[in-house]
Amino acid sequence: MKKQKWLSLILATAMSALIVLPAAASADTSVPGTTYSATDSTTAPLSPLAQQLQDYTAALEPLGVYEDKAIDTYRNNNYVNAANRKTTFLAFNNIIVPNYTKFVQGLKAIQTPNSDLKYLHYKYTRGAYLQLEGLMLFKQSLYSQKINYKLFNQANDKLAAGRKLIDQFNTEFEAYANKLAKQQ
């Protein structure tokens, strides 16, 4: 499972694109050699859809702590063999699955105010839930002394399916944010 930290970058980029420059800033009144800063003047208020997007990304931010901890630990324990099976199982049991479960529960608790965000959020939540199922299968495959490769392969399939949905979410979310930015 790849780290989804780039989601934060996409969200930050999308939100920065929604900042609207005042009319004076968009007119060609610049003096050569000077630059305009958005802090030089007040910005126009966000449209209701842009505000909803900003609220949505703000609701996602606190969940990143759980996702980061789970994924960082996963990265440190993603190679399993007979010698490290027990240590890896304990990482899945004590850190990875509990933190990713909190992340998914937090996603499920987020309410989306419009149909576009609801559709996007469904993809994200479904993808994260599939990944959680994959992580739980990984944990289960490592429970006994002999690795259960049937469960191990099922876990990889779940992770791949979840990753596909999350990738779709990221692509469509970026397009949605860009569409809103152009409307501003």
Word description of this protein:
There is one protein chain. This protein is mainly alpha-helical and 184 residues long. It has one domain. The chain contains 7 helices and no strands. It has helices at residues 6-17, 23-26, 48-60, 64-76, 85-109, 115-141, 149-183. Helix 1 (6-17) packs parallel to helix 7, helix 4 (64-76) runs antiparallel to helix 5 (85-109) and helix 5 packs antiparallel against helix 6 (115-141). The longest helix is centred in the C-terminal third of the chain and has 35 residues, at 149-183. The chain is elongated. Mean pLDDT is 81; it is low at 1-41.
Helix count? 7
- Which geometry do the CA atoms define? elongated
N-to-C order of helices and strands: HHHHHHH
Number of E-state strands? 0
Overall mean pLDDT stands at: 81
Q: How far apart are the termini? A: 36 Å
Helix content: over 70%
**Integer-rounded radius of gyration:** 21 Å
Measured by DSSP, the beta-strand proportion falls in: under 5%
